[in-house]
Amino acid sequence: MYKICVFAGTTEGRELVERLCRQSVRVWACVATEYGETLIPPAENLTVSARRMTAGEMAELFAAQGFAAVVDATHPYASAVTENIAAACERTGTAYLRLLRGSGDAPEDAVFVPDIAAAVDYLNTLEGNVLLTTGSKELSRYTGIRNFAGRVYARVLPMEDSLALCRAAGLPPSHVIAMQGPFSREMNAATLRSTGAVCLVTKDTGTPGGFGEKIAAARDAGARLVVVGRPPQREGLPFAAVWEELSRRFGLTRRPRVTVAGIGPGSREAMTGEVLSAVADAECCIGARRMTEAVTRPGQAAFDAVSPETIAGLIREHGEFDRFAVVMSGDVGFFSGAKKLLPLLADCDVRILPGLSSLSYLCARLGASYEDVRPVSLHGRERDIVPDVRSNRRVFALVGGENGAGALCRRLAESGLGDVTVHVGERLSYPDEKVTTGAAAEMAEKTFQSLSAVLIENEKAADRVVTHGLPDESFLRSGQGPVVPMTKSEVRAVCLSKLQLTESACCWDVGAGTGSVAIEMALQARGGRVFAVERREDALALLAENCRRLGADNVTVVSGTAPACCADLPAPTHVFIGGSAGNLKEIVALALEKNPAVRIVATAIALESVAELTACVRSFGFAETETVSLTVARDKKAGPYHLMTGQNPIYIFTMQGGRT
Fold it and tell me: CB under 8 Å, gap of 24 or more: what pairs does 429-438 form?
């Protein structure tokens, strides 16, 4: 097993050690202090050396351990240590790699000085307090600052050696800030304000060293940034190139760590602490721009991406990063892109963090529970919400598009649901959030944000009959012409039971007549579609009117003779044949061609039709068939008496295609 040594005195050095520890190699991490040792997570294949070494001691260690390579990931300002490591590698013939830290992007108004002496000279031209963030080792060189003990505050590591150097320099305890980073923008700004510092002195520590957070904090607190110049560095490679070189030499594999996090409605205040911590810890953040801008820290790498394929591609392309945060709005388990993304991340270590959903947030704002709410999404999806509103007392919808909430309210009003109550939430969790409540007809005239959360309340839905078998009187049967044929209630109830409809069924009703079967199909398959095929001109208007009156919004009326007019229809999951105009065999053949697993129910009264259906049962090789003869008698008043009057007997054929 290969042995790799890393001098890991920096953030990126520790990151390299962690990544190597997940490989089949032995890792030796060298740090200068025992405190540095505590910052490296333990691993079975890891040995940590916590001591300062001379070039000679390094050479002895390299020779004794026989390292396959040594990676110098020391601080850019520790030039003497870098020279010692390089010399020891050369003496022992050990492969040497220098991991370079990239420079930060300081603002134009920052003051750059070549060294500490120049920094002292500049600070002596200013009045006011100074915050030093350059560490304790060179603190004594800043004592030339005028009124050093009274003006200067030093942030150092919480170690006895650091505190001793502060005492030796003459700093009072009240001017010593002993803390371990990394420091956020907010923490840096708070330190500047609490010390009253007008100037922050730092080295160009690059993104891993928190340089971006210092830049942003100085801007927030109105403090001047003084940057002490970086000494010339030995030639080396950035993190990604070092990892690529190690992978090439030692057969390492990359398995990125990806956190898929729900950030809630959008504001930081509505995000969980766990999500904020995961995003802050990530090297790279991916998501829609609105979301990455809400969570990324200064200097943190971020990519604007929404599609699962693009996100997965970015993770694979950027080998310089090991920890990714993919941020998604709301809750990752609630109409989220996480469902399609996760199968694409099989070669990653994935952690999922939930967020606050817009459903729970809006209901909380309304003081309402949500255990009985039917959730749907109209954001980037095609769906008619009217059947859901007719069937449920409360429906929640995520709405997108130009004034999507207004268009939704207009659709409800046009469908006879103008009196339902609609609550529209805009900019939820932000200071300018807005929740508007009113009847759908009234809200249809308003304009809303493109991305809104909507809660619809329909009290009348509580009384909706859920069983099939609507009374025959519910359907109009005649208009300007003769009475249109209709499948009667009792027969219809049996046929619907035999169909075994599903919530999202795609149905054909061939020979729909008044639409009694098509409408009952639509009311049961609320999430599906029904195509009502009818060739009689006098029946088409009645069919459309019955659909409108009974709220069958997911019925499409198809004018023409089957099977010709069905050629372009979607493949059916269920077919009801109430009339075939002599084309029964052809209709069955087309349905089976479009979906070999289709379930067909057909009725026959005439013996010729019974014979034709029996022939179909024999010739098409169905996986399952059943024939039922049904006789119904209804009461009829005759004077003071009620007599039972028999209806025409009817045959109901059920044919199930072979499942694929």
Answer: 429/264, 429/265, 429/266, 429/267, 429/269, 429/270, 429/356, 429/361, 430/265, 430/266, 430/267, 433/365, 435/362, 435/365, 435/366
